[in-house]
Design brief:
Elements lengths: L1 E3 H10 L1 E5 L2 E4 L1 E6 L6 H10 L10 E3 L3 H14 L5 E6 L3 H4 L2 H9 L4 E7 L33 E4 L6 H12 L7 E7 H5 L1 E3 L8 E4 L7 H12 L4 E5 L1 H6 L2 H11 L3 E3 L14 E4 L6 H9 L2 E5 L5 H4 L9 E6 L2 H4 L5 E4 L2 H7 L10 H21 L7 H12 L3 E4 L4 H8 L8 E3 L8 H12 L5 E6 H6 L3 H8 L4 E6 L4 H9 L27 H7 L3 E5 L2 H13 L4 E6 L23 H14 L7
Parallel strand pairs: 2-11, 4-5, 4-6, 6-7, 7-9, 8-9, 12-13, 12-15, 13-14, 15-16, 16-17, 18-19, 18-20, 20-21, 21-23, 22-23
Antiparallel strand pairs: 1-10, 2-3
Helix pairs in contact: 1-2, 3-5, 3-18, 11-15, 16-17, 16-23
Bound molecules: thiamine diphosphate and magnesium ion.
Organism: Planobispora longispora
Pfam family, one: TPP_enzyme_N
Family: Belongs to the TPP enzyme family.
């Protein structure tokens, strides 16, 4: 079949399917793209040929920013439990490098996205082309090489003959739960438009079976022995529980054996907040309940977690516990010198049925439930009140959002959400905290809505994050994809402001204030109207100035058919203080007494840091 490389690529992608548990879906649901000279004549032309209405169409979506396209693909793929994703096509140069941040975010969160940056001419005859890097050491280096370290598979298609093998490798990595992440095929602009005679089989419908690797019998036996020998086990549920669809298996296992379940950001909702074994968030942004148990547990059963520093409180949290790590990726299963159980989470949890009626210590299960009740009381205290503090905003939203999805990524809200949000299931809680990327919120929320159009999507975004990347409101409006965007304005970076103060950096550069008479950024608040900005991008806007008006606005936004921004200014009002540390180094020498005190406290905390050998 004589087609250009770009036409062949598009035709191939439209024929790829994923399958797990007997359910098939399109592996690549569509293509986001921003065109320039590096892709308009190649992929642009190919996509134009296969638009809506053609059999086996590959739908095209226009975004405003290439980084945002990748965020949207991630939001989509995470919601679809990594079984379906989007491709993103860009021009060469800045369009391509704009995707580097999105690629890192995808790879760190272990979420599949397919990136198709244009690249400079393979023939080089026209070079240096507009936007070409020109590395004097090698003509083989282009800006796209910046995507290599953030991609789980990277290839550059310099000749048409290379395409089939690269495509097959790309699909394999996208659908491998242990290896998945950003997959990049760099496409030189001349090669995209070049014709070739392709074998018909390349375009046959192809199904990629997503594995549920069963635990190896010997490893399972070791795991069961560890569990049987434990009296105070604590389960740490990570994102892998959600991706594996293992929530029911987890609730059944924990219910039977009496082990409390703590949750990471990606694992939040693994068991519902009112489940008898629930003890909530663990780590630096954890609940007092989960953190107390973590300190006393003799066995941590990590399920699908990558043990970020937030989870382990920078390796200070889990007293003397042993680790048993259930993970589909050996890389994660090996962490903290854990007993490795390399397996699909659901398969492993079901295999724990072999424990029969083994149970944790009676007192342990009872105390966990007691601590969880205490935490719920603390939550109702801080999330109700007459002032619009952030916890009050979250409490109101938690009521209104009900069976909706909350989306967030950076600032002070992820921590507050992790502590305070009462999640009913993982798909309802979408906080990107692997990369915690400011600007993910609206673009990622758009992906969530694309993946689950039947659900109400509530995007929570701070003023700082909003100013980094608000432009995808336009895409939401254009596509008729309705989002409720709750824009929380506190005039700057509340999170980093607090952190700055605690490490002696005096809140430098963390408030949106005018340059004042002192020459510093300490004047009046910068006169900026973010609500008007949102309206100008095409959203409906509702302003709330108190808890009751916020409830009304959120309800109205929920009921509306149009993308609506609920603008709210918050007053300081913290969530319950953290009960676990986070390692952020403080200056070792300074003239400032406050810094010296902070350093002393830092050094004291650091003594509790363990190598987990
Ligand atoms: C792209 C990016 N740049 C910088 C940071 C570091 N950072 C984390 S939170 C934050 C401030 C966020 O401000 P805002 O969205 O207003 O949330 P707030 O802290 O006020 O809750 C910054 C600068 C980041 N996470 N992502
Ligand atoms: Mg802010």
């Amino acid at each position: 079949m004589r087609l250009t490389v770009a036409q062949a690529l598009v035709r191939f992608l439209a024929a790829q399917w994923s399958e797990r548990d007997g359910v098939e879906q399109r592996l690549v649901a569509g293509v986001f793209g921003i065109f320039g000279h590096g892709n308009v004549a190649g992929l642009g032309q190919a996509l134009a040929e296969r638009g809506a209405g053609t059999g086996d169409a590959l739908p095209y979506y226009l975004a405003r920013n290439e980084q945002a396209m990748v965020h949207t693909a991630v939001g989509y793929a995470r919601t679809r439990e990594r079984l379906s994703t989007f491709a993103c096509t860009t021009s060469i140069g800045p369009g391509a490098t704009n995707m580097v941040t999105g690629a890192a975010l995808a790879t760190i969160n272990r979420v599949p996205v397919l990136l198709l940056p244009g690249d400079v001419f393979a023939t080089r005859v026209a070079g240096p082309v507009l936007q070409e890097l020109e590395d004097p050491r090698s003509y083989d280096v282009t800006v796209n090489d910046a995507l290599r370290p953030v991609s789980r598979f990277f290839d550059r298609i310099n000749r048409p003959e290379q395409l089939p093998a690269a495509l097959l490798a790309a699909m394999r990595v996208l659908t491998d739960p242990a290896e998945t992440g950003a997959v990049t095929l760099a496409l030189p602009q001349d090669v995209q438009a070049e014709a070739y005679d392709w074998p018909e089989e390349l375009f046959a419908r192809r199904v990629w079976h997503v594995a549920r690797p069963a635990p190896e019998p010997a490893a399972l036996a070791r795991a069961l022995e560890l569990i049987r020998g434990s009296r105070r086990p604590l389960i740490v549920a990570g994102g892998g529980v959600a991706y594996s669809g293992a929530c029911e298996a987890l609730a059944a296992f924990a219910g039977r054996c009496g082990a409390p379940v703590a949750e990471t950001q990606a694992g939040k909702g693994a068991v519902p907040y009112d489940h008898p074994r629930w003890v909530g968030a663990v780590g630096h942004t954890g609940t007092a309940a989960a953190n107390e148990l973590a300190r006393e547990a003799d066995l941590v059963i990590g399920v699908g977690t990558r043990y970020s520093d937030f989870t382990t409180a920078s390796r200070t949290l889990f007293g003397r516990a042993r680790f048993l790590n259930v993970n589909v990726a050996a890389f994660d299963a090996a962490k903290n010198s854990g007993e490795m159980l390399v397996a699909d989470a659901r398969a492993a949890l079901e295999a724990f049925g072999a424990l029969g009626d083994w149970r944790a210590e009676e007192g342990w299960t009872g105390r966990a439930a007691e601590l969880a009740r205490g935490w719920h009381e603390q939550v109702s205290l801080v999330t109700t009140g007459e002032e619009l503090t952030q916890p009050v905003v979250l409490g109101l939203l938690n009521e209104v959002a009900r069976d909706g999805v909350v989306v967030n990524a950076a600032g002070s809200m992820p921590g507050d959400l992790h502590k305070l949000w009462m999640a009913r299931e993982p798909r309802g809680y979408h906080v990107e905290y692997g990369y915690s990327c400011m600007g993910y919120e609206i673009a990622g929320g758009l992906g969530v809505k694309l993946a689950a159009p039947e659900r109400e999507v509530f995007v929570l975004v701070g003023d700082g994050s909003y100013l980094m990347m608000a432009q995808e409101i336009v895409t939401a409006v254009q596509e008729g994809l309705k989002l409720v965007i709750v824009l929380v304005d506190n005039h700057g970076f509340a999170s980093i402001g607090g952190l700055s103060e605690s490490v002696g950096a005096r809140r430098l550069g963390t408030a949106y204030r005018m340059r004042g008479a002192t020459g510093e950024l300490d004047g009046a608040f910068v006169p900026v109207d973010l609500a008007a900005n949102a309206a100008s991008l095409g959203a409906d806007v509702l302003r709330a100035d108190g808890p009751e008006s916020l409830r009304v606005a959120l309800t109205k936004a929920r009921e509306s058919a149009r993308t609506t921004v609920v603008y709210v200014e918050t007053v300081p009002g913290p969530a319950p203080a953290t009960t676990a540390w986070w390692d952020v180094p403080v200056a070792e020498v300074s003239e400032d007494d406050g810094v010296r005190r902070a350093r002393a406290a830092y050094e004291a905390a650091k003594r509790d840091q363990r190598p987990y050998l």
